[in-house]
Design a protein that fits this description.
alpha+beta, Dipeptide-binding Protein, domain 1, 19% strand
């Protein structure tokens, strides 16, 4: 078989071993080759130059591949944005991963933090100061629309390269509340002074001195210093995040919000944006000016993505060899596995999906109602019958493979009809009598609708709430995020909505801390209480065993029988994906998929496409 079917449980176990050991997993030695590796060259007094050195003061230009190896892809959703500071969905994050450089990166196989813009780093003895040494040869580039990648020049005509000053600007910009960045709230608590700016009571009149006091300093062009508000043991695992990307201050100041549009955008990654026809398609080209040791091991020169919301249409394109990967419609899954077992992979991306409540909007301001709706959902049957086994039951939030996550079967309410009915009675709605009509908003797609309809049937059978009491609406993912934002008044917000959360970094703080801490202006509009005190204690605790104990307590207080239940987790996603035999790629657990490490057998692809 050209592609092995991934062992999902092995993947989760490996992830758990990597993270709990706080270091790289052991790997097998490479297989022996027919010829031994060449010996290292003899030492010389002077370095041997293999090619003419590049004058780094002169902007470079290079042509993109004239006959590019192309990854033809489909996406169910539009690309909401390309600003690294504003990225909060998997579609945008994947583009940021490939268009921009971050301080560090995740090894695609081991999930170990490895160098990217930073070549090395060290932490002070008190754990409060991280110092990163940066390389000086990553160019800022733009696609000229005529087949060339052109390096940016400054006002004096000198070539622009990524520097520590670009990272300082980017991180301080991310702390600005006027930017409207969700992930600013994720990084703010860790960095000295960032929270003071981000939580300013008067965002329109922030004292410039507060920005200067943010604990990010470019000591020089190749040295970045980040001062932490507390010795966050997980901070290094955050440094590959898209919010940690360098961004081009001069382009942002020139174009404003339009700096990310095709023709304007200046990037620093392995790919450049070629085109972006919003709602229709987008494409990216390999950056020939990227330093060779950062360029990646893959051979894909071009990524062409068509927006195709319908899974059945996507699948038809895949069957016709027009795209490399596809989701598989549920009604086609059994037949697909029988016919294309050697062109199918199983991806466990650690994304946990749930139905969320607006906790300030009646009747879900009543904790007994929230518990009842959670306990009335039969997760196991949903996964086995509706998702056809593509998932694991979740009754708490953080999945296996994340440091601090409780064992998967020890915390949470789970399916308990008797408990659900008792809670509805405690809320004053026995057998759903007197219960008002409520709204449930899902993101677009047939699979989400199937999920919602299953929930309606459960709530009708267990609680007595007929389906007509649950008014259903679907929206594009980006629209759903806007509709459920904490700033939306309760009367305009839905009562419930579907959502999922995937890992940004490998720590439980990324789950209960970054999603449910009341300081995050949660979509649920949680009020602060003792749980939030424990969240702060857990993220600042240096003893890993104590942190694990605290996170188990926090998860129980959120999702146990006496819990708040701001939302109810349902499953961690394990999806079958149709993937043609000529396409070799490894899905990423953290951040976006790394196109630059993917490869395509262009000859086999062309033959299948009839070219």
């Amino acid at each position: 078989m050209k592609k092995a079917l991934f062992s999902v449980f092995a993947l989760l176990i490996i992830g758990s071993m990597i993270l709990s050991a706080c270091g790289p997993a052991a790997t097998e030695a490479p297989a022996a080759t027919e010829e031994p590796a060449a010996p290292p060259p003899a030492a010389t007094e002077e370095p041997v130059m293999t090619e003419e050195p590049v004058d780094m003061t002169i902007p470079q230009t290079a042509a993109v591949a004239s006959d590019p190896v192309t990854n033809y892809a489909v996406s169910t959703t539009e690309l909401p944005n390309l600003d690294p500071a504003l990225a909060e969905d998997s579609v945008t994050i994947q583009y940021v991963e490939n268009l921009f450089v971050q301080l560090t990166n995740y090894d695609i196989v081991t999930s170990e933090v490895v160098p990217e813009a930073a070549t090395s780093w060290e932490n002070s003895e008190d754990g409060l100061t991280w110092t990163f040494q940066l390389r000086n040869d990553i160019p800022w580039v733009k696609y000229d629309g005529a087949g060339n990648v052109v390096q940016e020049a400054d006002a004096d005509g000198h070539a622009r390269y990524v520097t520590a000053f670009d990272f300082e600007y980017s991180l301080k910009r991310a702390c600005d509340p006027n930017l409207g960045s969700y992930y600013s709230g994720v990084i703010a608590p860790q960095i000295v002074g960032c929270s003071e700016v981000f939580n300013s009571e008067d965002p329109d009149n922030i004292d410039p001195a507060l920005f200067d006091a943010i604990g990010v300093t470019a000591v020089d062009a190749e040295t970045l210093e980040i001062n932490l508000a507390f010795p966050a043991s997980f901070f290094l695992s955050m440094t590959p995040m898209w919010t940690m990307s360098a961004t081009p201050q001069w382009a942002i100041e020139e174009y404003g919000a339009e700096w990310v549009d095709a023709g304007n955008i200046v990037t620093s990654g392995r790919y450049v944006l070629e085109s972006w026809d919003k709602g229709v398609s987008r494409s990216a080209l390999r950056n020939p000016l990227m330093p060779a040791d950062l360029a990646g091991s893959g051979n894909i020169d071009r990524v062409e993505v068509s927006v195709v919301p319908d899974t059945n249409t996507q699948y038809a394109l895949w069957l016709n060899n027009e795209v490399e990967n596809t989701g598989i419609p549920s009604e086609e899954l059994d037949a697909h596995l029988a016919e294309f077992g050697d062109e199918t992979i199983q991806v466990a991306d650690l994304a946990v999906f749930y139905i969320s409540f607006r906790m300030t909007k009646p009747p879900f301001d009543n904790v007994h109602v929230r518990r009842a709706f959670s306990a009335a959902f039969d997760r196991e049957t949903y996964i086995n019958e509706v998702r056809q086994g593509q998932g694991l039951v979740m009754t708490h939030f953080a999945p296996p493979g994340i440091f601090g996550a409780p064992p998967i079967d020890e915390i949470g309410i789970g399916f308990d009809p008797d408990f659900a009915r008792a809670e509805m009675e405690a809320a004053g709605y026995p057998n759903c009598e007197g219960f008002p009509q409520v709204t449930l908003l899902g993101y677009s797609g047939a699979s989400t609708l199937a999920w919602i309809e299953f929930a309606q049937a459960n709530w009708s059978e267990v609680l007595g709430c007929s389906a007509d009491l649950i008014q259903v609406e679907q929206q594009q993912f980006s629209d759903l995020l806007a509709t459920t934002d904490a700033s939306v008044p309760d009367e305009e917000a839905p009562h419930m909505w579907t959502l999922g959360w995937g890992p940004d970094y490998a720590d439980e703080n990324n789950w209960v801390g970054d999603v449910l801490n009341c300081e995050q202006l949660t979509r649920q509009k949680r009020e602060c209480n003792e749980i939030d005190d424990l969240i702060v204690e857990a993220r600042e605790e240096s003893d890993p065993n104590r942190r694990i104990e605290l996170y188990a307590q926090i998860e129980e207080m959120f999702f146990g029988p006496e819990g708040e239940v701001p939302f109810f987790p349902i499953f961690v996603r394990i999806a079958f994906v149709g993937s043609h035999s000529w396409y070799d790629y490894t899905p990423a657990l953290f951040g976006g998929d790394q196109w630059y490490n993917d490869s395509i057998d262009a000859e086999a692809q062309a033959a299948a496409r009839g070219e």
